[in-house]
Amino acid sequence: MRKLVVAFVVLAGFAGLFGVGALTALLVGGGAGRPSWSDCATDLGPWGDGAQRGESDASQLTPESVGIAKRIIEIGKQRNLPPRAWQIAIQAGKTESNLANLFRGDRDSLGIFQMRPSMGWGTVQQVTDVDYQINKFYDRLLQVSGWEDMRPGSAAQQVERSAFPMRYHQWEPLAAHLVSVQGDVPGITACDDLPSSGALADQAIKYATSKQGAPYIWGAAGPDAFDCSGLVQQAWRAAGVEIPKYSQTQYQQGGVHVPLSQAQPGDLVFWGANRDPGSIHHVAMYLGDNQIVQAPQPGESVEITKLWDGGELLPTAVRPVPDKVQAAGGVPAVGGQR
Question: What is the pLDDT of residue 186?
Fold first, then answer.
């Protein structure tokens, strides 16, 4: 839980990766006008290159892959499912098969989503039928509690149950781009649908800031000493919202993912090596006006300080919201796919 930079690096680190003034742009929004679905959804990825990478990845798809993506969207529309569901299915299909209807795979895995007949997904004929596969994926997705508020790759993992859960996030910009272009939904944005943390955030902030001066002790969760994740957990508990204890779990299951550009006071901000969610090692609470409250590292105390980067600040924050905090589980897979 290290404090990696001082004031100079706050500017220098962002200038090197995003350009001068990028920290301000991340927090207040860089573009003019209403964001498209693609612009907003791709901001949720940990790589920071958003729509540009999504468009680039899409340009490399085969005609078969584009056709399957279109069919995923068409069936999603027929079933009156929101664009977020289409995105989740596209990310899963791209990860599992490169959006191809494969007649091979690990053990008896087949098709777009590598469904296994031996695990109850259907017959060989069914799990290689494009429409059946897409409908089956949507059926399973709808059984996942809270899927609408999960990060799309996390929802895909709840259906697929892969041994490599983080890999679905890689195709977030691609899927958001396809939803925006192929699905023709530029007026629908993930940003517009983000819930507000409201008055509960004020209570969490009041608790966290009242602990200024409390010593950092690794693993501590109050009332007189804290580590970084313990501080934010107890602050939100004081507001009546339960979130997990550890920073990586807080990122994955602590609430609704929001772009850092949409961060509100009370949201959680995270640091990880190479901005990778799988390498998160520090969390703090955003206070607004480019300030955070945090328990920094051994030998230091809870403090209010400027938001800092050091090349590790993730462009995705987490907003704990009542009834939106994800359960650690989800729908049990039929034997699992992996």
Answer: 57
